[in-house]
């Protein structure tokens, strides 16, 4: 899956989401917003309790990117990242009860695997992933086991060695300012802009000025020259962060 043709092909171009096997990525509508099984709020929502919401739920395929793509505000998605399919299902049951059908117990067949991989390649290659709106920014939290992460890596590698690929699709497939490794919350705040943009209120200003110092230190060598440019690039994303869970 490391050649141009593994991505730039008619099957990826025409891949649909949801496929016959359900959603491989979002936005996945939540048909049961506000519904919750009548249990003690401290109790976990089991698959059994999630079984019969008032409105038929959507189906999510097991071939997905390990990111919670349940729509929470129009097309804006949750963005919570999980390390396994089981953890993702558990998160969705607790945070968005009734949104999804419980997973089928059958093994994933090769047709579903192909449909899912094509849909996820499409999502990455045609910049759906990069441009998607998330409540909880997943750029530094997505599992490196996620096919989305792997495909974004491969596409950026292909763009660096294949001019035709780069001219057609661009050269950036990870979400802006994505790091190469999982980072601590402190490091994640390095996405703050270096431009002297006036903060909307007092609280984010603190965060921004402290993260600017962090960024300066970290980027003192190789990237220092480009810091102004890259800070401008990450600016809109940082604003998104501010509205979401990172605030
Ligand atoms: Zn979620």
From TrEMBL:
UniProt region (Disordered), positions on chain: 177-247
Q: Where is the composition biased (Low complexity)?
A: 191-208
- UniProt lists compositionally biased (Basic residues) regions at 209-220
Q: Origin, by domain of life?
A: Eukaryota
**Which residue ranges have biased composition labelled Acidic residues?**
232-247
This chain belongs to the protein called Uncharacterized protein
Which species expresses this protein natively? Aspergillus ellipticus CBS 707.79
Lineage at the top is:
Eukaryota, Fungi, Dikarya, Ascomycota, Pezizomycotina
